[in-house]
Amino acid sequence: MTVNQILNAKGKNVYSVNSTRTVYEALKVMGEKNIGAILIIDGSELKGILSERDYARKIVLKDKSSKETLVDEIMESTVFTVKLSDNLEDCMELMSTKRIRHLPVLEEGIVVGIISISDVVKAIIELQKDTINHLNSYISQ
After folding, report:
1. Which CA distances in Å does 39 have to 29, 73, 75?
2. Each residue of 19-38: pLDDT tens digit?
3. Pairing of β 16-17 and β 37-42
4. Interatomic CA distance for residues 78 and 55, integer angstroms
5. What are φ and ψ of residue 81, in 5° steps?
6. With contact defined as beta carbons under 8 Å apart, do 19 and 72 qualify?
7. Three-state DSSP class for 6?
8. Beta-carbon neighbour count of residue 123 at 10 Å?
9. pLDDT per position as a tens digit, 104-131
10. Cα–Cα dist 133/34, whole Å
């Protein structure tokens, strides 16, 4: 299974803010869209990613103000990405080794989607169900 197949099933919505927004504004979008991380995009260039974990560790625990702190002060600027053609196993390995939960999907330098660890797990479960059904069908014949 490829990243493209996952995005076709879940949708290719991309939510983002630019790096000069406040953390509060980014959190507001995250809350409205019910997402755990938001991409930081200036123009069409991916600059970083901001997660709920970043907020908890870099704002709440450091007693900063989300209404005064800019996104670019706490965002993760090292962003690991995948392509539409990448397979599920590669995504899972990258997420596991880098200990990340979200992977922006880029094609020709443009963000075309994002997948989360939950998207990958759901896809694996579906693949396993298909394999089990196929094996059961084979055994029953």
Report:
1. 11, 14, 9
2. 999 999 999 999 999 999 99
3. parallel
4. 16
5. -125, 165
6. yes
7. helix
8. 21
9. 999 999 999 999 999 999 998 988 887 7
10. 33
